[in-house]
Design goal:
By secondary structure, the chain is an alpha+beta fold. Helix content is about 20%, strand content about 20%. Helix 4 (about 210-230) runs parallel beside helix 7 and helix 6 (about 265-280) packs parallel to helix 10. About 55% of the residues are buried. This is Arylsulfatase. It holds the Pfam family Sulfatase. Belongs to the sulfatase family.
């Protein structure tokens, strides 16, 4: 192996041509130049595949004793290592930014998810340029880089089709190829996709068998094959983050049906079965204890008998979803094996970016957006029973009950969002690299954290941490390479200090001990009483003998607890955790959160063909009066289709034409649909179609009166009984002249619904009477500019 000739701490590596003789004539025999050599990593650098699943608890996968069959995970574990004390941050975007940078999530501005970012540095969602992502470092060292799946690291005011793209994977993220979605979750049957930074539609429909995980796998397999066909000497870094098994739990029915009857005994019994299997596998020590159920989580026997078939089906669907996901991960692993490169590929299979999600309410949800709007009560037990056969299908946007999330985090307390307890942060992780790990089926119980992945990959590739990237001096990575643990199960752990915090749920790990305090309940997303920070009750656990945090020693060792509390405060100050912010749903409003917005003022104009506009890219019409005015040209044969639509099947609104007549629909969570129809068709020619919504006021989510106008003359009127106060959708968008994703109105059943006339412009105004029901075409630009 020849020594590496590059100084790689400054990236890009400076071009430094060697001085020498320059001849006048290239034919001169003294003319000599060294051959051009493409930049490659040091010899022996492996391919790298990082697989990150979403919202999978420690006790879900069969590889760690859970009830959901994951044969690919078991296969990789049999030839590699299982880490049973690997930790994440308790929430998705923070874990992902920490993974991709090797820094603590507050250090890179991701104290929580991007949708709740504030102006505080630790919660801004803006990654400092002093903390370059791993993919950029690898790319500038000669790796081919690609990401497939979920990207939840883009600040929400940068998520429009115009960027800026500094935080996008293929913009400033270091990935040469990106195919996936921007945001926290997506409809698995009908996702909003990007190829690089270009919005694209899925290649097929749900009726044609489309599913997002399969599509992402197809793209990843195709990319790896092409990369090895064209660049066999260049290693790759592939980040495969499918977005499964985050809600909505969407999976073909046959996969869910494989688990029929398996969960009939409920979540309490399931925890006991999982715990026994975990001890049998050895992923949980024999002396560990199963933690008790918190009183805030109902026992299975406390649930109504007539609701239990729904609850059982929720878990069957989730289990099928996880097995389906693992199956497609297996297709990607098989592709590496077929290419003969599996042994020389360092694979991280991280089974979850946090604990299992308890955001689905105590009963579960047919449309999880109901809970995000504080309207879960609309999904009555009767409603859920009526939908039991549709869970997991394209007509659902479903989630399981809190009790199942708790069971999927066996043997620990609590769930996703609760960064204090291991149920929120401990995720089973498998490392497979036969070229280095020669004895497979090993167990590693070193304390490790997601920030350790990036420095591990750099050490495995023989690459130093850069001190400068793109002319910016870099701060050191905060993780610790795990490579030492690959070789020796008995080696002392090197990552022995780690803070945790999420919505003021907080904890500290230090040399086996943990001090923790749970502050906020994860399924209470809007409202709810929380204690003052200083009133939080801290607990103390000795992880050297208490694997599951089952025995609180706070009363017995108050001095040790006080020392760890002080240490938490020191670490929190060091990494930008302060000020703590325990608001959740309230931070969805950018004004109160203090983050930028893409749109200012009370008016916004759109033009035909504009689309895939995220909710943060459009002026908010929630909880207030508003109007929508469109200049349309109607052919003699009449007009059909969408003028403008925001949201989709599971919540939103649309102004459109049906059988020639203008219609307005307000869809509340896919449960209630309020439709107002004009009395007659829009005449042929160029006209203004206007909708005015007069909000009732008196609080959030109220209804209002709707009036339709043609050229300022009343054409129809009606009533909207209720509205959504917080969010329409996590993935559906606003489109002009067509509708991407699922349709808002039941008048249309598939995506598309293109307007058959011509749209000159569309304008949303907050308030309903600014133009006497008509906008002078010559004045509309002046009016809009005056409102900015």
């Amino acid at each position: 192996m020849r020594p590496d000739q590059h100084a790689r701490t400054m990236l890009p590596i400076p071009d430094r041509p060697a001085p020498g003789l320059t001849t006048y004539d290239a034919k001169d025999p003294d003319t000599s130049y060294p051959p051009i050599e493409p930049l490659l990593p040091p010899e022996g650098a492996p391919n790298v595949l990082v697989i990150l699943l979403d919202d999978v608890g420690f006790g879900a996968s069969s590889a760690f004793g859970g009830p959901c069959r994951t044969p690919t995970a078991e296969r990789l574990a049999a030839g590699g290592l299982r880490f049973n004390r690997f930790h994440t941050t308790a929430l998705c975007a923070p874990t992902r930014q920490a993974l991709l940078t090797g820094r603590n999530h507050h250090s890179v501005g991701m104290g929580s998810i991007t949708e709740t970012a504030t102006s505080a540095p630790g919660n801004s969602s803006v990654r400092p340029n002093t903390k370059a992502p791993l993919a950029m470092t690898l790319k500038l060292n000669g790796y081919s880089t690609a990401q497939f799946g979920k990207c939840h690291e883009v600040p929400v005011w940068q998520t429009s089709p115009l960027g800026p793209f500094d935080a996008w994977p293929s913009g400033g993220g270091g990935f040469e190829t990106f195919y996936g979605f921007i945001g926290g979750e997506n409809n698995q049957w009908d996702p909003a996709l990007y190829d690089g930074t270009t919005p694209v539609e899925p290649p097929a429909t749900p009726e044609e068998g489309y599913h997002l995980t399969e599509d992402l796998t197809d793209r990843a397999v195709g990319w790896v094959r092409q990369q090895k066909a064209l660049m066999p000497d260049r290693p790759f870094f592939v980040y495969f983050a499918p977005g499964a098994t985050h809600a909505p739990h969407h999976v073909p029915k046959e996969w869910a049906d494989r688990y029929a009857g398996q969960f009939d005994d409920g979540w309490d019994v399931q925890r006991e079965r999982t715990f026994a299997r975990q001890q049998e596998l050895g992923v949980v020590p024999a002396e560990a204890e199963l933690t008790v159920r918190n009183p805030q989580i109902p026992a299975w026997d406390e649930m109504p008998d007539d609701l239990k078939p729904v609850l059982v089906r929720e878990m069957e669907v989730y289990a099928g979803f996880l097995e389906h996901t693992d199956h497609h991960v297996g297709r990607l692993v098989d592709a590496l094996d077929d290419l003969g490169i599996l042994d020389d590929t360092l694979i991280y299979y991280i089974i979850g970016d946090n604990g299992a999600s308890a955001e689905g309410t105590l009963n579960g949800a047919f449309n999880e957006m109901a809970n995000f709007n504080g309207m879960a009560a609309l999904e009555t037990p009767e409603f859920l029973r009526s939908k039991v056969d549709e869970f997991g299908s394209p007509s659902s946007y479903n989630h399981y009950a809190v009790g199942w999330a708790w069971a999927m985090d066996t043997p620990f307390q609590w769930t996703k969002q609760v960064a204090s307890h291991w149920g929120g942060t401990r995720n089973g992780t498998i490392v497979h690299w036969p070229e280095r790990i020669t004895q497979g089926d090993g167990l590693r119980s070193h304390f490790t954290h997601v920030i350790d992945v990036a420095p591990t990959i750099l050490e495995a590739a023989g690459l130093p941490e850069p001190t400068s990237v793109n002319g910016v001096q870099q701060s050191p990575m905060e993780g610790t390479s795990m490579l030492y643990a690959f070789d020796d199960a008995q080696s002392p752990e090197r990552h022995d200090l780690q803070y945790f915090e999420m919505f003021a749920n907080r904890g500290i790990y230090f040399k086996g001990w943990s001090a923790v305090t749970k502050h906020r309940t994860p399924w209470l997303l809007v409202g709810g009483e929380v204690p003052a920070f200083d009133d939080d009750v801290w607990e103390l656990y000795d992880g050297r003998t208490d694997f599951s945090q089952a025995h609180d020693l706070a009363a017995e060792q108050p001095e040790r607890l006080a020392g760890l509390q002080r240490l938490w405060l020191i670490e929190a100050t060091k990494y930008g955790v302060l000020p703590m912010d325990d608001r959740t749903g309230e931070r969805l409003d950018p004004a109160s959160a203090g983050r930028p917005t893409l749109v200012h003022g009370t008016s916004q104009q759109f033009f035909a063909g504009m689309g895939r506009l995220s909710e943060s890219s459009v002026v908010s019409i929630k909880n207030r009066s508003f109007s929508v005015t469109a200049e349309v040209e109607v052919p003699a044969a009449g007009v059909e289709g969408v003028i403008i639509a925001q949201g989709g099947r599971f919540g939103g609104w649309s102004l459109y034409a049906k059988e020639g007549r203008a219609k307005f629909v307000y869809n509340v969570l896919g449960i209630q649909e309020f439709v107002v129809t004009a009395d007659h068709a829009v005449p042929a020619g160029t006209h203004q179609v206007r909708m005015e919504f007069a909000y009732d006021g008196g609080g959030l989510a109220k209804g209002g009166d709707v009036t339709l106008y043609y050229d300022g003359e009343v054409a129809g009127a009606g009533r909207v009984g209720a509205t959504q106060p917080m969010i329409f959708s996590a993935d559906e968008t606003t489109d002009v002249g067509y509708e991407s994703g699922t349709p808002v109105t039941s008048d249309y059943t598939t995506r598309g619904s293109r307007f058959t006339g011509r749209i000159g412009w569309v304008q949303i105004d907050l308030g309903t009477d600014d133009h006497d029901h008509f906008i002078d075409p010559d004045e509309r630009l002046r009016i809009a500019m005056a409102r900015q």
